[in-house]
Task: structure prediction
Amino acid sequence: MRDVASQWSGGDDTIRIKVSLTMLPKFRAGVTVLAVLSALDRRETYGYEIRREAHKKTRGVFTVNEGALYQLLRVLVRRGFVRVRQEEVGGRCRKYYRLTAAGRKEFSKLRHDWKNSRKVLDALLD
Result:
């Protein structure tokens, strides 16, 4: 495991803080969940549109990984947060996803938590 360590010394007191760089992938996974739920909160849509919307809204700064997206969608369906239906489009089967009432409730909680976290980070980093 890689760590970033910082040390502060003040006389006899030494504080050593280790911040694991493994936090960053977890943060990215959380952002992916928000991106997916946010897209589905607006309308029923399919995987490629979810990826495209996240890329567009973040002006290319954030891209939803395709493999992670479909794995996450399966988990959200299994947990009852998302419903899926299939439709034939251009000779191919396309899956459309939409939030359930439970999914909307969960998204509302997550959005509230993330907004509060952002306020804390903004205050600390300014």
